[in-house]
Every structure is written in structure tokens, then in C-alpha cells.
Amino acid sequence: MAEAVFHAPKRRRRVHESYESPWPIPFAQDCGPQREFRMFRAEMINNSVVVRSPEDIGQLYGKGYFGKGILSKSRPHFTGSDAKLVAKWKDIKTNMPIITSEKYQRRAEWAAELMRRQGQEESAVRRVLEEFTRPLERPRVGRAEGGQLHAEPRSETASTSEGTARSETLSVTNGDSGRADKAGSASRPSDCLQEGPGPEPLSTDSLDECVPEDPTPRPRVGRCEQDGPAPACGPQPEDSSRGAEVACADQECVLVEEVLCDGSPREDAPAGELVQRKQLVCRRNPYRIFEYLQLSLEEAFFLVYALGCLSIYYEKEPLTIMKLWEAFSAVQPSFRTTYLAYHYFRSKGWVPKVGLKYGTDLLLYRKGPPFYHASYSVIVELVDDRFQGTARRPFSWRALAALSRVSANVSKELMLCYLIKPSTMTDEEMGSPECMKRIQVQEVILSRWVSSRERSDQDEL
Q1: To the nearest whole percent, how much of the chain has pLDDT over 90?
Q2: 289, 7 in Cβ contact below 8 A?
Q3: pTM, whole model, 2 decimals?
Q4: Which candidate in 63, 88, 367, 373 is catalytic?
């Protein structure tokens, strides 16, 4: 049998972050009064494990690269800004999201649809949105090419105090990235992932119930179940004659690029056509979208079982290890097999990720995706000690050659990971994670045989 040759991992050209602890837990020398053991919290919603606390998200992804953002490619850093507008208005020093007027109108329509589903009258919906989407006072902070940031004044009757403006927030959130695009056309009550201003999630309420606004300056977000948005039901805005300016908080407001006419015709334009200039207007965001961290079932169980730093809740009740093993096995039939391989490679120092985009079970990274490209594409099979068993994905020679060629084209090596269990092990024993103690692992690396290369090597000998 030919011996596999180890190839060094391919390092990424540009690395924009530093390597932290490979585990989201403090080591023995780091433990002390300032480094206490931290328990993270996740929830099982729609057969997925989701972390909602921003502090927990930063720790889990930053230390070990567990999970991925539901609105981002990998690292959860969704800001809601339009990338082209951010580049265009790069001279503007602000942390607020910058979006187009079309996107802002779409969010306003989503908020209106949600209020209609709550049973509010059309006149009330129009009145709330008209007052809520008025421009806010904002000082000039700089100039950018192609436009100027103006502090658009508000009428005296439209001005409100800071506390009133914050209590009128119609902040809503969605449970996944695809839900936001379809919220406007939904016709049935839906549920969502939601969080309040603190790290602990709020209690579950029905969509038909209104959650009164918190009188504190920071607004609370309305709470609902899974899979869909819902607005916070605070007091409706009222016309006020108070002349106080509205304080614009970065978490509640967005900058909208709008086209305004200055009233003077262009020299090179047809008669009657006015000059159009674009500027940024500060407005309150009627539909807030939050970033969450989604863990794969293997990652979630590893954090619970191997590291003991995560608690997974379902309907406010924490799930035990056995309940998680059974639930994950029911949701994903191949969970037991893939988790055994995940646990093995994680313990060896690799960072396994889902390999679906390359047609395999796992991808193995050294340190993490920001530092190295994946080194191996792994296919996992569970067999007995005589290498017999029902193959999860039986390969023909043609399919195996095609998969090997795909892996080679993306600079990865194809690995077959065989999980060898004793022939005497029963299905009841596999019903507990303790079965890992009797499992052996054997890796086989497949390489494409090139006849011309092999012939030249023989000629040199």
C-alpha cells in the first residue's frame, strides 16, 4: 500500500485578524478572579441551534471559529449597510448603516404589513409610519464626493423629545436571511428569533399580543416565536409642538441616500429638467435586522458534550446531553456518524466545517478559515471491524474519480475517514455518546494517479 504524503496547509495571502485561544474556555493558567468559566446560551429553533447574545457570538466565533453568521458569509459582522454606498460616502465619519431610499421604503412596507397583521387600522398604520419616518436632525460631519451630508430641518410639529422618539420605535427582527425578503408578502402569522437589549432573550409571546415599550432610553424589541419578524407594540406617536431636537442613536437610525432637486436647470439638459443631487438623510429604521450565530449540530454538541461550555434551550427548558443526542439524530440521520468524525478531528487540533459545497461531509482547516485554506475534504463512513456495513454514500469508480478531481482542482486532498465499531456493538449502544470510547478511526487519503508522471518517475530511477 502506498504511503500518503503530508502536504503543508496553504496559508491565505491576507490575514486581517490575530489568532486567539482555540477554545472558548479559559485555560488553567488563565483562570482567576477575572477569568471565570463562562456558560454560553443557545436555542434550538426550527431544527437549528442559534446563539443570539452578541457577547456569546463574539466569544464562540473568535475562539475556535464555531458557527457562522446567518446574514454573513462566515464571520457574523452584518451591519445592514450597502457596500457601494459605504465606498461612495467613505469621507463620512459615522457608524450608522447607509442604505438606498428603495431599501428604506421596502423596510417601511414590511413594518406596515406587520402592523396590519396585528389588526391595526389602515389609518393608524399610515399615521404611525408618516411620523416614524420623518427626517431627523443631524449635524454636518463631513463632505463626500458626489454629494453633501445635510442636516435636514424638521418642522416644529414634527419635533419630539428623545424619550418620546425612542418609545415610538417599531424595531423588528427576522429569524433568517431569506425571511426578510419575503416578509412583505407573507399572509399568515409568523414567528421569529428575537432578543432584547440584554444578553438574556425575552419571554415568548404571541404575535397578536402587544409588548409595551420600556420607558428607559434604550428601546426593547418585540418578542415572538420562531421564523419571522414582529414589531414592538409601543404607544403610537402623537403630534407635538415641542421644539426639542431628536437625538439620533446609531442603533436606531440609518442614513438614507436620497435624490433632491435644487430647483435650477442644467445647462446641458433639456428644457425644464432640474439638477438632481444626492444627499444622506438621517431617519429612524422601521425594520431592524439582527445578526445571529448558527451552529451546526456537530459544533453545538461538541460545545455541550466535550467542552461543557454551552447550554441549549428548547421552549425555555435546557436540554440534557441524551436529549440532544436523540434530537439531533432525529433531525439529521447521519448525525452520529458525522459527529464521531467531528469530535475526532477537533480533538486533533483541526477546525472542521461543513463540506457540502465540495460534495463531502467535512472540510479540515488549520487554525481556522481566516488563516488557511481547507487542507482536506473528508468523507465519513461507519463500518464494523471487518469493514462491512451499509455505505452512507456508495461510490462508483466514476463518481469517486470525479470527486477526487474536484478536490484536486480546489487544492484539497480527498480523505476517507472510516469509523470502525466492534461487530458486537448494538444499536442501543449507539444511542449514547459513550459509544465513542469503543470506536476506532482510520484515515485513507486518495490521490489521482497520473500515468505520465509515474512513467517519468520510473525513468529517472
Answers
A1: 37
A2: no
A3: 0.69
A4: 373
